[in-house]
């Protein structure tokens, strides 16, 4: 209705009143009654329209709010489901009101209601939740379940100043702990590798420094052995520094297109005297194959592999075969040496690993050669595998991409 309806009603009433004063007819009263009826009808329709608009507005607001709440609930459920760690929310009554799929997989059976005392929870998890819930404090603990190490965390949930339960998160720290164990083992192995030549040098130096010592031949032997141990120390330290750079991603790779067969030939030239001394033949069909690599690092790879092969091959041959495909090459370094036992094969690429019959320590090796080889191959985006049979020989297979997508600076 027009916002001036009171004004128009007053004009109509005044008109009917004046009309009634100057006539004895009932028409003015009928007119006023008819006008008020129309006015009341229009007024009621306006009220109904306003009420309808208000209802529509409130309905739309409630619908939008409900949709927003549903969307937020779905988003929260999706977030909780995809959290890559077991998660549970414990309410003030000790009930686990929210658990994700990863937490459910830890339970031995499904239950309609789970609380901090439920026997379906693993024992260590149940004790941790109970302790956290009853103490109402932040808590953390390392828990081992089914071969996996978890860091269990408890975060109190507050409603104002009142305790409202706690959030339980189990983070998988298996790789972290394994890294720590490997680091400790690496330090212990490195210390042992350094300690052995140092002790040898120290013992011979003490004997040479005795006032009564005058054996010239023994002196020459000791000096020759000291020189050998110093060279071994130098090799171990250099290899340790190299491994450290590779592990910390600080190794610079100068990736350029080069002839991999020329690199293999240069590596063979560096150990050719050992082949000649043992009478072991080297089989390699030279052909130009260009791939993108760091030629210096690949030279170290093949120097280590060929040196390793001739060290354990007293007769027969060492052969290098290359198979080229559309986007990669496979290089196989095969020998007819003593071979590697099946029990030792899984560990040949580990740092400082030596089998019981290993001769690398006597030959001055650091025990890091194959670990370095694998690190370089992986840095180039390749793979290396090994197969062997005792007294028949060993084969190392390298797979490298022809076009290298790795960054020049790693």
Structural description of this entry:
50% of the residues lie in helices and 20% in strands. It is α+β, with helices and mostly antiparallel strands and 410 residues long. It folds into three domains: 5-77; 83-172, Beta-Lactamase (2-Layer Sandwich); 251-410, Histidine kinase-like ATPase, C-terminal domain (Heat Shock Protein 90, 2-Layer Sandwich). The strands form three sheets. The chain has a five-stranded antiparallel sheet with strand order 2-1-5-4-3, sandwiched between helices. Strand 4 (148-159) and strand 5 (162-172) form a beta hairpin. The protein is elongated and about 160 Å long.
Annotation keywords:
five-stranded mixed sheet, 50% helix, 20% strand, alpha+beta, Heat Shock Protein 90, 9 helices, Beta-Lactamase, single chain, 12 strands, 3 domains, 410 residues
Layout of strands and helices, then pairs:
Layout (H helix, E strand, L loop, with lengths): L4 H17 L5 H56 L4 E4 L5 E4 L1 H6 L16 H13 L3 E7 L2 E12 L2 E11 L1 H35 L7 H32 L8 E4 H19 L2 E4 L5 E4 L1 H17 L5 E8 L3 E8 L33 H11 L3 E7 L3 E9 L9
Helix pairs in contact: 1-2, 5-6, 6-9, 7-8, 8-9
């Amino acid at each position: 209705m027009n916002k001036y309806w009171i004004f128009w009603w007053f004009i109509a009433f005044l008109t009917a009143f004046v009309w009634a004063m100057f006539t004895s007819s009932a028409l003015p009263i009928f007119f006023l009654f008819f006008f008020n009826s129309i006015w009341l009808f229009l007024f009621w329709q306006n009220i109904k329209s306003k009420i309808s608009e208000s209802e529509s507005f409130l309905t739309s607001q409630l619908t939008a709010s409900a949709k927003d709440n549903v969307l937020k609930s779905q988003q929260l459920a999706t977030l909780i489901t995809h959290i890559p760690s077991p998660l549970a929310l414990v309410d003030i009554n000790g009930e686990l009101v929210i658990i994700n799929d990863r937490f459910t997989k830890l339970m031995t059976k499904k239950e309609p209601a789970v609380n901090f005392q439920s026997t379906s929870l693993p024992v260590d998890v149940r004790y941790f939740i109970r302790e956290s819930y009853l103490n109402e404090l932040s808590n953390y603990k390392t828990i081992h379940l089914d071969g996996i190490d978890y860091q269990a965390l408890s975060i109190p949930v507050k409603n104002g100043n009142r305790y409202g339960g706690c959030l339980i998160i189990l983070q998988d720290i298996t790789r972290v702990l394994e890294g720590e164990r490997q680091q400790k083992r690496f330090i212990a192995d490195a210390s042992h590798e350094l300690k052995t030549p140092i002790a040898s040098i120290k013992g011979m130096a003490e004997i040479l420094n005795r006032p009564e010592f005058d054996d010239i031949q023994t002196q020459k032997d000791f000096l020759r052995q000291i020189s050998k141990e110093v060279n071994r120390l130098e090799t171990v330290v250099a290899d340790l520094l190299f491994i450290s750079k590779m592990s910390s991603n600080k190794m610079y790779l100068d990736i350029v297109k080069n002839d991999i067969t020329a690199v293999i030939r240069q590596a063979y030239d560096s150990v050719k005297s050992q082949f000649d001394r043992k009478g072991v033949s080297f089989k390699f069909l030279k052909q130009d194959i260009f791939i993108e690599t760091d030629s210096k690092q690949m030279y170290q790879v093949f120097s280590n592999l060929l040196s390793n092969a001739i060290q354990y091959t007293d007769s027969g041959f060492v052969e290098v075969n290359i198979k080229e495909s559309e986007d990669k090459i496979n290089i196989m370094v095969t020998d007819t040496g003593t071979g590697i036992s099946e029990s030792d094969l899984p560990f040949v690429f580990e740092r400082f690993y030596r089998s019981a019959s290993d001769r690398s320590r006597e030959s001055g090796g650091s025990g890091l050669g194959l670990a370095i080889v694998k690190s370089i191959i992986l840095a180039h985006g390749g793979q290396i595998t090994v197969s062997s049979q005792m007294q028949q020989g060993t084969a190392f297979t390298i797979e490298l991409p022809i076009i290298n997508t790795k960054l020049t600076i790693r």
